[in-house]
Write a structure and sequence with these properties.
With about 90 residues, this protein is α+β, with helices and mostly antiparallel strands. Helices cover about 35% and strands about 20% of the residues. The protein is built from 2 helices and 3 strands; from the N terminus they run αββαβ.
């Protein structure tokens, strides 16, 4: 089965933490011509995640939590760049 990159990342993170919001955007098209940008996409992605798991964690700790848990996917799918926006529910603008 050729599972989509979005689905792979979502499933991995869903097992790790409660996800209040998960948004995935393939931004590879913005890097056309770049050496590591595949024409088929999937090399440059943006993740916006809201989770209570980020409460009490600073920015570096949040990034580390995500990277440590999707590292095998990043390597397997040859992702070159990931932009992360990671917030706890209490940080959402009301």
């Amino acid at each position: 089965m050729n599972e989509s990159l979005e689905s792979m990342i979502f499933q991995r993170l869903k097992e790790l933490m409660p996800l209040q919001s998960f948004q995935f955007e393939d931004q590879s098209y913005q890097h056309a011509g770049h050496n590591d940008a595949a024409k088929a996409g999937g090399t440059h992605i943006k993740l916006e995640i809201v989770s209570a798991a980020f409460d009490g964690l600073n920015r570096v700790e949040r990034h580390r939590l995500i990277y440590e848990n999707i590292d095998s996917i990043v390597k397997e799918r040859k992702i070159h760049a990931i932009a992360l926006s990671l917030r706890s529910p209490s940080e959402l603008v009301k």
